[in-house]
Amino acid sequence: MTVKRKLYGLVALGIFIAALVASVAVYGVASMSRASHSIFDNALLVNKNVSTLVVLFEQSRSLVRSISSDSSQETVAKAAAAFDAIDQKLADTSIDAFRSITNEGVREVVTSFIDSLDRSRQVSQDIFRAWLHGDKASAATLLSVHGASNEQAMRDALGTLTAFVDRLAADDLAALERTQRITIWVAVAVAAVMPFLIYLAFLVARQIAVPIASLTFAARDVERRKFKPDSIENVAAQRNELGSLARVFQKMAVDVQRREEELEAEVEARTHDLAAKNILLEKSQHRMETELDIARSLQGAMLPQRMPKHPSYSGRAIMRPARELGGDFYDFFIIGEDEIGLVIADVSGKGVPAAFFMAISRTVLQASARERRSAGECLAETNSILCEQNPLEMFVTVFYGILNLRTGVLNYANGGHNPPVVVREDGEVTQLPQTGGMAMGIMAGLVYQEGAVTLSAGDTLFLYTDGISEAMDGDGHEFTVDRLLASLSESHRQSLDIVVSSVTDAVSDFVGDAPQHDDMTYLVVRYKGPPGELATFNGARENAELAEPA
């Protein structure tokens, strides 16, 4: 017998017992209620209506007996009026009594009683009519003959009614006693069967609960990794749903434990392997950092550390890469006896590729410049060479100017770079006009137009990359060229060290804690005039000052 059938059988048995007990209880209560209501209703009806009829009948008979041959006509009339009122009440009460009776036996007996009462009322009415018409003989005859017989018939009917009611009450009480006895016997029977049913339910519940408890403990052992298949062998041997469940659980638990052991072994092996790889990775990271430090040092060494000594100018330069290696660069070099080349450039991208392309661009540009070409020709040749050797398709924006130290004339060409700023000795701040050139490395065969500007003694030339003008704060707002021009408004009164510090502080204050997202490079050169005019310009102390590559 399966567990499901056992449970269904137990439920069906419980439902049957509950229905049986409920039916017996309902039957007993209904029987007692009917018996009680029957007794109460019949008794109340008979007592009320019969008592009222008897009282009214006695009152009417008293009025009839109160009249004699000596009574005056006025006395007879008053008695007749009182009799009519009582007689009307008798008639109404008789009708109400008849209509309210529902028990057929009571109805039959009461009907007989009311018939006797009606006959007696009729005789009394005839007696009063005879008195009122002065026929005293007829009235005396009716009173002595018919009155006595009707009164006796009335009393006989009343006795019959009373006996019937008593018998009816006795029958109802007997039925009630039988119902009580049946109810008691049923209750005793249920009480006798209930312990057996409870014991049977306990056995069935135990047959279900014990295997479930065993499975529960087994599941806990699986969680603790202490499960033994033999612990639920008794349950697995059962040929029911619980046995099937136990067998499936055994197989599943064994598989889970085996897989956990395999997984632990795999994790342990992977952990050792990962630890070894982490060691190699740390070594590689250390080696890469060392190589990047060397590369950063080499990149810094590639840029000129000191401007060439000359009484006609002084300068400062700073390059701060956003990563370990940057793509910006600056350069200055002597061309002949009276000219100096000034370069500021920005390679696309960042990191190692930009650093390599920066080194190539600087080398090619400087080699072309030392052949005494003009600024535009130098950029055109450099662009052609870069386009031929550009597998990563990178490009570089560049400004290249040639400053004549005797005349102060700056001939320049711009390859898509930010225009430098000129700060005149009188404080005027302007940007050099653009020449419309394109960044180098994009397209070969380009021609770069040239521009020229004349610097006077005390004028300052500020060359920079877009890492300064496009420096961003935490909200993504840029520093802008306008802020740069504003920070240079007082630079004509300041030494180059202070000019560099002012620009650096202005950018740092604007950016705040936001990370640097692009390389920042600038080159500042102050023209002091031709060598013969240096006596009129107090700038000799700035000769041969160091540039500051970061």
Walk me through what this model shows.
By secondary structure, this protein is α+β, with helices and mostly antiparallel strands. It has 2 domains: 2-174, Four Helix Bundle (Hemerythrin (Met), subunit A); 311-527, PPM-type phosphatase domain (Phosphatase 2c, domain 1, 4-Layer Sandwich). Helices cover 61% and strands 12% of the residues. It contains 11 helices and 11 strands. The protein has helices at 3-65, 73-100, 104-132, 136-223, 233-236, 241-302, 351-369, 375-388, 466-469, 480-487, 496-511; strands at residues 313-320, 328-335, 339-347, 396-404, 409-415, 421-423, 429-431, 450-454, 460-464, 520-527, 548-549. A 6-stranded mixed β-sheet has the order 7-6-9-10-1-11. A 5-stranded antiparallel β-sheet has the order 2-3-4-5-8. Helix 1 runs antiparallel to helix 2 and helix 7 packs across helix 8. One of its GO terms (molecular function) is phosphatase activity.
Question: Which radius of gyration do the C-alpha atoms yield?
Answer: 66 Å
CATH superfamily of the largest domain: PPM-type phosphatase domain
What CATH calls the topology of the largest domain is Phosphatase 2c, domain 1
CATH 2nd-level architecture of the largest domain? 4-Layer Sandwich
The CATH class of the largest domain is Alpha Beta
